[in-house]
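Sanity check

After download, print the first record. It should look like this:
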Amino acid sequence: MKTYTKTYELFSYDELSEEGKEKAIGDRIDFIIETHDWDKKNPYNDSYGKAERLHTPWFLGSIIWEDHGDDIVDEIKVNEYMFFASGELAPPEYCVEA
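Expected structure tokens:
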């Protein structure tokens, strides 16, 4: 039997390039949009309401970033998410230090 170990270079949010940070934030906002129950009260309802009032639901992600960008970055940092250099979120099983 042979055992192989693959290593990955993972980065915290602060270690990412600007392009990596943009992807990480964009993916997080997409996740928020796709998973939040907009019928229940949540911190992003004000952004959703603004997009609806402006009749521009396609700008919801931009509005969330404008209204809650600092909170989203703080959430990423507090949860200590790890990323590939591209800004793609690393699966939790990849984040175990050897």
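If your output differs, re-run the checksum step. Summary of this record's structure: The longest helix spans residues 60-78.
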